[in-house]
Design a protein that fits this description.
single chain, 99 residues, mainly alpha, 3 helices, 89% helix
Length: 99
């Protein structure tokens, strides 16, 4: 028995939310790693400060953009995910006719 349209859209939204959060966490891990790798070869403390500010700005702006994306996706879930589910159903039906 196929799942309802709402449950399928919720599953797609949940998957996108998990991926966005995962990528954000991984981005912060990479930023911290790169910061420490770069500061180990930074010639002056001033460059270390610049690196810290740049790292924080990059991380904060990327995190804010992903939060905005998640908010927009939650607000427009039907508009975003309904066509995806409908196209998946059409593709599945077309493949079924070919067999």
């Amino acid at each position: 028995m196929p799942a309802s349209l709402d449950s399928r859209m919720a599953a797609l939204a949940r998957r996108d939310r998990i991926l966005a959060i995962t990528f954000t966490v991984l981005m912060w891990v990479v930023l911290v790693f790169v910061f420490f790798a770069a500061t180990s070869v930074a010639p002056t403390p001033a460059i270390t400060v610049v690196l810290a500010v740049a790292t924080l700005l990059l991380g904060v702006f990327n995190t804010a953009s992903l939060l905005a994306l998640l908010t927009r996706y939650a607000a427009n879930r039907d508009l975003i995910y309904r066509p995806d589910v409908m196209h998946l159903d059409q593709l599945r039906a077309a493949r079924g006719k070919q067999d």
